[in-house]
Amino acid sequence: MALSFASLTNFSKMQSGVWYSGSITPRVTVRCCETAKEPPQKSKLQVGSPIIIVEAPKVIKTAASMPCLRANAGLVKPGDVGRIVSRKPKDLWAVRLSIGTYLLDGKYFKALELEE
């Protein structure tokens, strides 16, 4: 992720106690490098990755075109296995489980390690 900011300004007023009467064009460049903010296990996740539910969410939201938010009455349980369908902003994932596709926060599941 990179962010750039450039500013071009004419100064004809007093700045820091010094008069400027010409064209001064200061440039400010800000760069933001992406750091590993997520736990290492989350970086392995991609579309199609198998996952296992580690904690049951209190409410679940369907990943349908017209989503439905409802209380989790034992539909999604710890130990359920599914696959990632897509990634949404802020560590939200569309996960395909045996009972349907739901939007789940990344804290409720982890990558399933398959041994060959």
TrEMBL record:
Q: Which InterPro entries match?
A: CRR42-like
* One BP annotation, GO: NADH dehydrogenase complex (plastoquinone) assembly
Q: What top-level branch of life does the organism fall under?
A: Eukaryota
The family database entries (Pfam families) matched by this protein are listed as: CRR42-like (PF11347)
Q: Which PANTHER family match?
A: PROTEIN CHLORORESPIRATORY REDUCTION 42, CHLOROPLASTIC (PTHR36799:SF2), PTHR36799
Q: What is this protein called?
A: Chlororespiratory reduction 42
Q: Which organism is it from?
A: Brassica carinata (Ethiopian mustard)
